[in-house]
Design brief:
By secondary structure, this protein is mostly helical. The chain has one domain. It has helices at residues 7-29, 34-59, 64-71, 73-95, 99-108, 110-119, 121-140, 151-160, 166-181, 187-215, 226-251, 258-281, 284-287, 291-308, 317-346. The protein is globular.
Length: 347
């Protein structure tokens, strides 16, 4: 019997789902759509690899029941809510159309729907950018953090974390800068969406900590249960949404078929969930000392890239998606080299 951390055991379900959906794509759309389907799945995985690293850290603190919910209810939310319904709600908010009108647009006039989604992009970029930026700086502005990868810079950031409310002060300055410098017609949108991103990141994290400390929402193994686990679960779903938005918008550069986009990105979401479980069960964060650091630098970079789009500064999708892989692979290599150096020193 395969060990619970064996890759075949963890990735088998994602592989089966991928094959079944690929066959459905071929049956309904022809063999010519298969390549686009594969590209979309790869796009999602590339954009969300650093998301899997962060997810594995949070998920490892949750009880088995909540881990199971993340893989069942969570995947439904990831595929059908985040990658289909949420973009429709964003377009609805930006255009004033009804929900069903936007659904009709998405299914029957995907080109116009894609255009409307691009016009609504500032809402997505301000929310996702500030959420990810807040997540990234919260990790580095932690005065209790003792392990540093980019040592001179990370040490200074950790020292700055001793300043009371430094994270909120920093994000308030970022939001004020955005408000004063973006196009005048975007100011209200950026302020509302950016503030929502900050409040959600800070609020969900604070709720989890509050419930854990106040009500002792942990089991005998020290894993989160109850309201603390629920807050962490919701945090994971919002984090997933922040990462996926860019992939949804970028997907329209590949195809205008909404159903194909949902299929490709949805399959990618299954693989990201499997990667999260593999990283958690294999203890990858413990094996590679700087992996989590690399993931958070990647998150900071992606947050900055999303905010830069408010100023019409856009990197190619391939470059944006590769940012996370560059940071994470560099962190893994650095971890391996340092470990080997340490072993030689103590030999």
């Amino acid at each position: 019997m395969l060990h619970k951390a064996h890759p075949l055991r963890i990735f088998a379900f994602s592989g089966i789902i991928s094959v079944l959906i690929a066959l459905a794509v071929i049956y309904f759309g022809g063999i010519g759509l298969l390549w686009l389907f594969i590209i979309l799945a790869i796009l999602e995985v590339t954009f969300s690899f650093d998301n899997a690293v962060i997810n594995s850290r949070i998920l490892s603190r949750m009880s088995k029941i909540w881990q199971t919910l993340f893989l069942t209810v969570g995947i439904f939310i990831a595929v059908f809510v985040v990658r289909f319904a949420l973009p429709i709600l964003v377009v609805q908010f930006a255009t004033g159309l009804s929900f069903m009108d936007v659904v009709h647009l998405a299914l029957n006039d995907p080109v116009k729907y894609g255009d409307e989604l691009h016009h609504a992009a500032p809402v997505i970029e301000a929310f996702g950018g500030t959420f990810l930026l807040m997540l990234g700086i919260s990790y580095f502005l932690d005065h209790d953090k003792v392990v540093h990868w980019l040592r001179p810079l990370e040490k200074q950031l950790a020292r700055a974390g001793k300043i009371r409310f430094i994270k909120l002060i920093f994000m308030a300055l970022v939001l004020a800068f955005l408000f004063l410098t973006v196009d005048p017609e975007l100011r209200d949108t950026v302020m509302f969406s950016g503030l929502l991103g900050i409040v959600l990141q800070f609020g969900l994290h604070s709720m989890s900590v509050f419930f854990e400390k106040t009500f002792g929402n942990t089991n005998s193994s020290g894993h989160l249960i109850g309201w603390a686990a629920f807050a962490s679960f919701m945090y994971l779903e919002v984090l997933d949404a922040s990462f996926s938005f860019d992939g949804v918008i970028g997907a329209f550069a590949i195809t205008t078929s909404v159903l194909l986009i949902v299929a490709g990105l949805g399959v990618g979401a299954f693989w990201v969930r499997s990667m999260t479980i593999y990283l958690m069960r294999a203890g990858t964060l413990a094996k590679y000392r700087y992996l989590e650091h690399g993931a958070h630098w990647a998150i900071l970079a992606l947050g900055i890239v999303m905010l830069a789009k408010l100023y019409h500064l856009e990197l190619p999708e391939a470059a944006t998606g590769s940012l996370g892989l560059v940071f994470i692979s560099t962190a893994v290599v650095t971890s391996i080299l340092e470990k080997r150096l340490g072993e030689k020193t103590h030999a």
